[in-house]
Design brief:
Length: 185
């Protein structure tokens, strides 16, 4: 298992450096105040991870989580397929969630097809639009979303995480290597 997979946060409390985003998302999910979310921010800040955690907290089972990379599945047919899947209740009666990663890559027709589904989402349907370029999401879509903006994680927090992982993995890493990892991250 890769380190990124092994140490990926599984709960809101494990998310690093995003206290405002975590609080907003936790409040919205636990209070059932929103069903459609736009998570934006730089690469590697935790948008997709937060969407997965939110779906899990809402009670979504792994089989009821649809995740698609819009960078390679940008067409209207894929969005219609997802919308159709979101119409049906789950076997256990819990919620169903769709995470559209790199949402800024969707075509205009795909966005248009999502307008009705996100304006009046079915009960138990959660939508997460994750993007590094929120300016490419149509304003008509953003008005339907609870918007959560993630910020770059502070170097000190990244350093602490790298040191913790190195310690848990029993790796001896010098300060120069840690500095390089922090700088790259």
């Amino acid at each position: 298992m890769s380190l990124i997979t092994k140490y990926r946060p599984q709960t809101f409390d494990e998310v690093l450096g995003q206290p405002g985003a975590v609080k907003a998302l936790r409040t919205a999910i636990e209070g059932k105040r929103a069903q459609v979310f736009a998570l934006s921010g730089p690469s590697g800040t935790g948008k997709t991870t937060l969407a997965r955690i939110a779906a899990k907290v809402a009670g979504c089972k792994p089989a009821d989580l649809i995740e698609v990379d819009a960078a390679t599945n940008s067409g209207i047919d894929k969005m219609r397929e997802i919308q159709n899947m979101m119409l049906y209740r789950t076997v256990n009666g819990g919620p169903r969630a769709a995470i559209i990663d790199e949402a800024h890559g969707l075509s205009k027709q795909s966005w248009d097809s999502l307008l009705k589904a996100t304006e009046e989402p079915k009960a138990g349907a959660l939508w997460f639009l994750c993007t590094t370029n929120v300016a490419k999401i149509p304003k008509t879509m953003l008005t339907r979303c609870a918007r959560i903006d993630l910020k770059p994680v502070a170097d000190a927090a990244i350093r602490k995480l790298v040191e913790q992982v190195a310690d848990e993995e029993k790796l001896s890493i010098g300060d120069g290597a840690i500095d390089a990892v922090v700088s790259t991250a």
